[in-house]
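Shipment paperwork, digital attachment
Item: protein structure file
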Amino acid sequence: MMWLGLEFALILFVIAAAVFVAFARDIVGAIVTFAAFTLGIAVIWVLLAAPDVALIEAAVGAGVTSVLFLITVMKTTGMSGENEATGARRAETDGGNTADADSDGGAFRPINVPALMMVGALAIPLGYVVLSLEPVGAENAPAVVETYADGELTPYGHYIENTLEETGFPNAVVAVLVVYRGLDTLGELIVAFAAAVSILIVLEREDIL
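Attachment content:
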């Protein structure tokens, strides 16, 4: 019961963090909240018995991506102190109109109704699919049994039975990454390379490229 309460609290935290990131006007605050959001997602992956995915989520999401966002803000608009000074100078030249506009805007952005409708249209079928799945670790779930009720091999059973014969790799994990989903792994490598190049460009380290 305690674990169930912690899981619900974690889900509520992730949802609240995502909403804050979407509507917050403070860019730095949104980036920090985004890092916390990705850490929450990483913990959820751990609870779903996927520590490898959790590690990547924490490293890329909370680590590399958040740092890249902060560096980009610092090199473009500056941090909050610089923005406040710029806003004060603009307020002096505009006779206080800028400050009034900022105060009227509040800490959050207005709701974009078309975007909200699109999110709802995507959330309803996704929620239905998630709720229709077998519980994690269920004995009759296709992911943890080798055959269906009619005797046909499940994907899990296929990999267990045929990996060595079809790929020549004794390690099923390596076979899945390199052979069965080789194009997906190649795409992930391309994304990682593009992210590394982008970081070097933002850091003005073109000499390394």
